[in-house]
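Whether sequence alone determines local backbone shape is best considered at the level of individual chains. When preparing material for the folding task, we compiled for one chain both its residues and its backbone structure tokens. The sequence in question and its structure tokens are set out directly beneath this paragraph.
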Amino acid sequence: MFAQQYGRGEKIKSGKLLSVYCVLLGAVFVFISALGMILTVPILRVLNTPTDLFEYAREYLFVIFIGVPFLMIYSTYSAALRGVGNSKVPFISVLISSVINGVFDYVFIGICGFGVWSAAVATVISQIVMTVYIITFTARHYPSLRFSKSHMKERQATIKSGGKYALPPAVQSSVTSVGNIFLQRFMNTFGEQTVAAITTAYRVDSVLLLPIVNFSMAISTIVAQETGAGNEKAAKKAFQLGTVMMAVMSAGLTRVIILTGRTLLSMFGLTGESVAIGDEFFKTISLFYVINGVAMSIKGYLEGISDMLFSGMMGICSLGVRIVCSYLFEGVFDNMVIAYAEAFSWVFLLLVFIMRYLSKRRKIINVQK
């Protein structure tokens, strides 16, 4: 919505959107944060968290929930800035946050010898700094995006207009999070070495895939801006160029993780057995990076033209594919079934997004005729 409003030159609406959703989501996520802190132990029990890891996980998760509202406010401001064409500041704020997180991790754990909980404290501190930075920058450089109580007078209309865009991905994210709990529970049955290996590999994998996620967001933003301005040809050109860049970048990431995966895992102090398991995970999942990249590119285009409902529904269906494949093919792939299940879900997304894209393009061409 920010990008489409920016393309139409509706700066005042963007300010209202930011103010209303910061207050609305802020209240919601303060409640979610408190609920998460109360339910930390039951959540870990549902996950079948190994006994020897349970107390560490409880301490860490309890503190992490404190930072959830700050992360939400950052995400809202980040969306606003990306929508008006500024992707540098969200990047800089995350970079600052990462450095602060790393420094405090080293101080708390490496120097002071504090427990696992201190790593969570470092993360929350970095989230607070990141949020304060992006709010301060936005207020100083984008007057139209400054928070104002007057914007709240039309909150009902703003919530209604934003809801049709926000609800589909919100539902998808919520369902995906719940589904990931079941996947984590399933993974925990493979034992401590596999849990350590795959959990660490996923953390490295999630960082490595950030370029793909952000390229998809960039495609969505540019397509939305051009669509809002009524420039369909420019939107199509941005999508095509973005897809080529995405495919090349994804292939490069595959090469990087295959060559450096074992070294990266070793840096986390894993046992030799866990490193071997994690390295096998990388070599399996990375072969499908290009498929994921192209699928995310098409997803960005579809969301840019406001096809949020379909994108959200397919995200939920993709999760279903992961869960079903995990249980269905456990006897075939053993502990690597987690990697193959996710890969199969990417293939599913690519196929359905291609069909949806072709359908949308036919409609656009027919309208132009």
